[in-house]
Amino acid sequence: PSPDGTGPARDPFASARAALDGVIASSMAADALGALRGAELPLVMLDSDPEDHGAAARVNLDIADGMRQVTEHLLGLGHRRFTHLASAVDTWTFAVRARALREAVGSVPGAVLHTVTAPLDVTAGREAAEKVLSSPGPLPTALVCDDDILAAGACKAVRRRGLRVPDDISVTGFDDLALATAVEPELTTVRLPAEQVGERGMTALLDVLEGRRAEPGDLPVRLVARGSTAPPPRA
């Protein structure tokens, strides 16, 4: 994908059939894969829609469970007013996060969820969160962000409003990037087994090339609770 993750990269596959035995790609690169669809190259997709049948094999993470873990953590702390700071990138992985969050919050009487979108950028996340925090009505007590980059922007927005994370508003991320422990307070987020995804993807491609069935099943993810979440403030 392009460096900012919002559009296709320059097509690197002009002579794909002659140069490559197979390809591993993520859902973020889907727009750049048009040249591969008809090239009869084995394609292994990472973190991608299981209903897309163009891949010879796929390796997915249990993204929905990760967002359920985030929501259950916040609900258990007592939060009932949620804002979802959602990625503006239209890919399967972010759609799954949104659906899982909506279903988890919707199952709890009295819990409410609003959604705003932003590009995957700290500044864009900050600006989107500032709009939420300056809107009329009760403030959310939890900002649930689609990834750690947006969460870092959300934390900046909270501070600029003269509020504190997590005393006034809890903030969560997703992915457990190095950024998650670089911000203060450190982010509560979902850890994805990135190296295991790469290993499983390479193994799947070798299996396909050698005529074996790739290993099925999603890889588990894990909530890492840190300092950015706490019980909501008392009314």
Q: Can you walk through the features of this model?
A:
- The protein has 235 residues and is an alpha/beta fold.
- The protein has two domains: 74 residues, Rossmann fold (3-Layer(aba) Sandwich), CATH 3.40.50; 128 residues, Response regulator (Rossmann fold), CATH 3.40.50.2300.
- 34% of the residues lie in helices and 16% in strands.
- The chain contains seven helices and nine strands.
- Strands 5-4-6-7 form a four-stranded parallel β-sheet, with helices on both faces. A three-stranded parallel β-sheet has the order 1-2-3, covered by helices on one side.
- Helix 3 runs parallel beside helix 4 and helix 5 packs across helix 6.
- The chain is elongated and about 65 Å long.
- The N and C termini lie far apart (45 Å).
- CATH class identity of the largest domain: Alpha Beta
Low-confidence stretches: none
Helicity range: 25-40%
Residue share in β-strands: 15-25%
Average pLDDT score: 89
The termini sit apart by 45 Å
Overall outline: elongated
CA-based gyration radius? 19 Å
Q: Can you count the helices?
A: 7
CATH architect. name of the largest domain: 3-Layer(aba) Sandwich
Strand order of the largest sheet: 5-4-6-7
Structural class: alpha/beta
Indicate how many domains the architecture comprises. 2
Number of strands: 9
H and E string: HEHEEHEHEHEHEEHE
CATH-defined superfamily of the largest domain: Response regulator
Kindly identify the CATH topology of the largest domain. Answer: Rossmann fold
